[in-house]
Amino acid sequence: MDYINTTQTEPKNSTNVSSIFNNQVLPVLYSIICVCAFILNGIAVWIFFRVPSSSALIVYLKNMVVADILMLFTYPWRVVGDLGYGGLQVKLIICRYTAVLFYLSMYTGITFMSLISLERYFKIVCSTSSVSSFLQRVLVAKTIALLTWGVMMFLMLPNAILTNQPMPEVFSCMALKSDLGRRWHETSVFINVGIFWVAFLLMVFCYTSIACHVYRSYKRVQRDRSKARRQSNRSIFSLLAVFVFCFVPYHVCRVIFTLNQRHKDSFSTHNHNLLQAKEATLFLSAFNVCLDPVIYFIMCRTFRESLLQKITCKNRRPSSRQNQQSVKTEQQSKTSVSHLQDGKDI
């Protein structure tokens, strides 16, 4: 898994387009999302890690924040490498370390998205089952999160360790890998693509089941209660929308591109177009770090109310000690209510 494209013979009529796209357009786009994502995720960290992990949902959302922050730190390296600064040493760092961190963070985040959908499914559709009560435990959620990070690190870190060959005359990330490293690279690509499609199908199943359950509830109970619950559950589908927009195009393209890489033919125009499509759709996946904070705001009541509370407090300027005490009491009351409501309604 590499950012740096392999150096092969390209058709002359596509070289200029490729150069402009890779060395001018993509660095600008990555720079923009890097700045926006640092601001948005900085706010998310500032809010989220003041909130106690009182539910499985908050545990998974916090781990998504960590994955996004790690993923975000790879973007400046991508920009510097695409602009041609730092020479081969920067490219070596990208191939060996930051590209691996990028994919590790991305697929870990995807896994937590699927865990959130599963947690919501058991919370809403199977709320009375023993499995639901078991999965809602914070300790269980923390254990699952730890296992997720452990499995993903076991899968991805060998891609960094096995990128250990001397610098080739014609640079490419694949040339830096040992024979075992190439085989592990290909295997890890297919495993990660498999993880994505399993996560995607799981999310479709969970949210379809939730939609059907909400519709049946709407027909059975009073309209006001059902409407509130329907509006609450509708926000869940923002996660699925972001997931489809950011990750589905890349993984469709990734399968085709990886299968093409197995052939040792010269770099044809068809392969070149696939490479450009892969880079464009990879950018959509990278854009996910800007959209995830929106998901936190929509899905998590505690996050939403804490953020709005911070904004409100900054806009208020109490003129007396009595007003300050009143504001403090109001804040404590709101925080207590939000902690009680979180995890029960999103």
Automatic annotation (TrEMBL):
Pfam families: 7tm_1. Its main location: membrane. It is a multi-pass membrane protein. Residues 320-339 have a biased composition (Polar residues). The keyword Glycosyltransferase does not apply. Keywords: Cell membrane, G-protein coupled receptor, Membrane, Receptor, Transducer, Transmembrane, Transmembrane helix. Residues 40-296 form the G-protein coupled receptors family 1 profile domain. This is G-protein coupled receptors family 1 profile domain-containing protein. It is found in: Cell membrane. Residues 318-346 are annotated as: Disordered. It comes from the Eukaryota. The chain crosses the membrane at residues 28-49, 56-77, 97-118, 139-161, 189-215, 236-260, 280-300. PANTHER family: P2Y PURINOCEPTOR 14, P2Y PURINOCEPTOR-RELATED G-PROTEIN COUPLED RECEPTOR. InterPro entries: GPCR_Rhodpsn (IPR000276), GPCR_Rhodpsn_7TM (IPR017452). Belongs to the G-protein coupled receptor 1 family.
